[in-house]
Amino acid sequence: MVPLLLLIALATLATAVVLRHFLPLLRNPGLPKGSFGWLLIGETIAFLRPHPSNTTGGFVHDRIARYGTVFKSHLFGAPTVVSCDEELNHFVLHNEERLFQCSYPGPIRTILGDSSALVVTGERHRQIRAMFLALVASTGLKPAYVASVSESARSVVASWRGRDTVTFCEEARKVRSTSFCRPLQQFPYKVIMEQVLGLSPDEPVARRILEEYQTFMKGVISFPLTIPGTPFARGMKARKRISDTMEAFIEERKKNGSSKQGVFLDVLLANKDLSHDDKVAFLLDSLLAGHETTSVLLSILIYFLAKSPNIVEQLKREHESIRSSKGKEEPLTPEDYRKMDYTQRVVSEALRCGNIVKLVHRKALQDISFKGYVIPAGWKVLPILGAVHLDPSHHVDPEQFNPCRWEGLNQTNSKSFTPFGGGQRLCPGSEIVKVEAAFFLHYLVLNYRWKLDGEDVPMLHQYVEFKRGLPIQLEPL
Ligand code: HEM
């Protein structure tokens, strides 16, 4: 009797799994071509297989060849429409909250927290985003801010003096499957810490947060198992400790006031629309989003430039000309930044080839017809930003690092170039990043020659990793 009941239970479970997997296919005619892969896991494992960041990777490449730039699949546990099509990507990004909604997988939401800008939707998202826009407006291209970024870039590059080799992503060598570009993190971390909290990165609170951050990031990119001791569980704990440290810091600031003027924390604390949790989450987001992505961009610049001596020469000429009109130690100004035309093309090309954020996660809020396809309500929609960056019909020889392709073109906002996403969720940090990257290059090309210490490649997992840690041989000029 018991074996029979067990058999019936198993058969019911198996039928439920099969139906759950395939029913969405039967219910919805007019879907794009594609396949759902295996039961339970769908095609997620093949989709996540790492590949060089300046290629689309085998999975996307094969599907585009077989089905075209829009195809269906089963990813992250949900029926999915994958878009490598610039028009559909634009349509999805620009119809946020009307036809589509931001929808990151459960584990990412768990570790980022309920109040993270990437997780909240509707009115709450509008309020939190408004604070990010205010942060950007408070920096803008204001002389004092620009001078402080310049000083941070100068001091980080100067700290490498006397070293023959720098391994930019040191941690990648020690702990497999992490890519923390430590020597490069210092610079964006310094900028964001000073701007938001008015703290120097050497102060104990800032050091504590950075240490916890390493554990947190290992959690973000790990397999989402909440069992104690796993990197994911440790990451969640680290997030909680960062959040507690921030809270204590806020309380102290409320009591004692700030010793520095123009620190964004004071603007944040004065905001009556946001709850205490939202404010802590804002601080976390700005520190976390604000420096990991930027340090990856800097490492990608170092990598591609190491392979392109002619481009470095041209960059150097631009920066020598800017420096020739000012003193050796004088910080860069907004006017200097505006003269960095070629540098901006180099940065845009690194963003295109680096694909730091390969895709964004959305879901359809209602049935949608687009170019003859049906995207059913509730389905996941994945605009693959990187696939459009590498589409030869939009970018000639897309795998080549060639800044000249940007001459006379719009480098900020076109349908075929969206490294910072678009629409209501366009990255608020894009301008901050570009100034940091340009100033970093200024001090780098004027102070060093460099080459790769053996071959290494930026590999795209869900993030960019250099397998060997990007070791570089530096030669002071
Ligand atoms: C190279 C560096 C960076 C890249 C490639 C990048 C890319 C992106 C992308 C693609 C999105 C859109 C996500 C989506 O639509 O779901 C985004 C959102 C966001 N980014 Fe960045 N980002 C970078 C640097 C920064 C910096 C420096 C900050 C700090 C201020 C920042 C803060 C944010 C925030 C808060 C959001 C969420 C915005 C919202 O949902 O309204 N990012 N970023």
UniProtKB/TrEMBL annotation:
Enzymatic reactions: campesterol + reduced [NADPH--hemoprotein reductase] + O2 = (22S)-22-hydroxycampesterol + oxidized [NADPH--hemoprotein reductase] + H2O + H(+)
Q: Which cofactor does it need?
A: heme
UniProt KW keywords: Heme, Iron, Membrane, Metal-binding, Monooxygenase, Oxidoreductase, Signal, Transmembrane, Transmembrane helix
Q: Which GO terms describe its molecular function?
A: heme binding; iron ion binding; monooxygenase activity; oxidoreductase activity, acting on paired donors, with incorporation or reduction of molecular oxygen
SUPFAM superfamilies per the record?
Cytochrome P450
**The keyword rRNA-binding belongs to this UniProt entry's keyword annotation:** no
Where located? Membrane
Please provide the Gene Ontology terms (biological process) for this protein.
Answer: brassinosteroid biosynthetic process; brassinosteroid homeostasis; sterol metabolic process
Q: Where is the signal peptide?
A: 1-16
The protein's matches in CDD domains, at most eight in alphabetical order, are given as: CYP90-like
Q: Which residues bind heme?
A: 427
Q: Kindly report the protein's main subcellular placement as a broad class.
A: membrane
Family, according to the entry, reads as follows: Belongs to the cytochrome P450 family.
Official protein name in the record: Cytochrome P450 724B1
